[in-house]
Amino acid sequence: MSDASLTTKGALAPFDVSSDLSEVSDWVALLKPRVMMLVVFTGAVGMAIAPGHQHWVLSLVAILCIAIASGAAGAINMWFDRDIDAVMRRTAQRPVPMGRIAPNGALGFGVTLSVFSVTLMGLATNWVAASMLAGSIGFYVFVYTMWLKRRTPQNIVIGGAAGAFPPIIGWAAVTGGTALPPIVLFLIIFLWTPPHFWSLSLWAHADYERAGVPMLPVVAGQKETRRQILIYAAVLFPVGLAPWALGFAGPAYAVVAAGLGAWFLHACWKVFSDAQDAEGRSLTKDAPARWAFRVSLIHLAGIFAAIAMDHWIFG
């Protein structure tokens, strides 16, 4: 038998590497890796500033658990939101609405990773951290995704607590409990989330309106959303300085936090004062809102990097 005939029958047919990689990338996309990166970073900072000592292997396992749990929540979110994701341009290419991953597959993937991450966290560190990890998954899935997101314009305010848990979880993974420093870090993320996400929703409001999701710009209008963005940014500024004011970060942190906070506040002011029509719609294609969204990411990452560096350098 010739080589050609064997190839025709598939005996020597090469693996479809591009297809295999595409399938892997779809499963990775379910984990919302960009969100995961920020979650892991803030959780790692919570661990880094916690008192006491933990073996570096256990620290890596704890960080892995936080990452897996974040991805698990993202996968379940994509399973539940597949109907609205399909009609939003920003999310229509996700693997579930595109049919590349079956809904039940996404759900099973998310549930399996949830159980695995919580169990591993409990066995590797302590069950206080594991219970907090389970609580963060449950809050994101049941409170935000299934209850708040489609019912109230305050969805991202209350639901944002899920994304603020990682510093507390990281601290608990080392100490077995909680304290004021991780709670302050929780508050920073909690207050940061509305201006961050509403900046995005300003230039993606048509998507939310099409999907019937009551985001603030859809329900209260863009003018009120701009006002709320500025209010939250103004409240966030002094809270960002709280680690220094409360004595668990030094003056170097205070300088960085003040600079980043002022930059973000200025970006939010530009959103508020953006040229608008009578109904508050941007005449600049929401350029300030897009800029504020980018600044918000740098702001939060910078705040947490500064507090970690302050701890490592100055103790």
From TrEMBL:
Catalyzed reactions: heme b + (2E,6E)-farnesyl diphosphate + H2O = Fe(II)-heme o + diphosphate
Membrane topology, record value: Multi-pass membrane protein
Any further remark recorded for this protein: Carbon 2 of the heme B porphyrin ring is defined according to the Fischer nomenclature.
Function recorded in the entry: Converts heme B (protoheme IX) to heme O by substitution of the vinyl group on carbon 2 of heme B porphyrin ring with a hydroxyethyl farnesyl side group.
Domain of life from the UniProt record: Bacteria
Key word Magnesium present: no
Broad class of the protein's primary localization: membrane
Pathway: Porphyrin-containing compound metabolism; heme O biosynthesis; heme O from protoheme: step 1/1
First-level EC class: transferase
GO cellular component: plasma membrane
Keyword line: Cell membrane, Heme biosynthesis, Membrane, Transferase, Transmembrane, Transmembrane helix
Lineage: Bacteria, Pseudomonadati, Pseudomonadota, Alphaproteobacteria, Acetobacterales
Gene: ctaB
Gene3D superfamilies: UbiA prenyltransferase (1.10.357.140)
Family statement: Belongs to the UbiA prenyltransferase family. Protoheme IX farnesyltransferase subfamily.
CDD domains: PT_UbiA_Cox10 (cd13957)
Regions that span the bilayer: 35-52, 58-80, 101-121, 127-148, 155-174, 180-200, 229-246, 252-272, 293-314
GO biological process, one term: heme O biosynthetic process
Recorded GO MF terms: protoheme IX farnesyltransferase activity
Coiled coil: none
Subcellular location: Cell membrane
Matches recorded under InterPro entries: Protohaem_IX_farnesylTrfase (IPR006369), UbiA_prenyltransferase (IPR000537), UbiA_prenylTrfase_CS (IPR030470), UbiA_sf (IPR044878)
NCBIfam families, alphabetized: cyoE_ctaB (TIGR01473), PRK04375.1-2 (NF003349)
Keyword Coiled coil: no
Name by which UniProt lists this protein: Protoheme IX farnesyltransferase
Enzyme Commission designation: 2.5.1.141
PROSITE patterns according to UniProt: UBIA
A Pfam match: UbiA
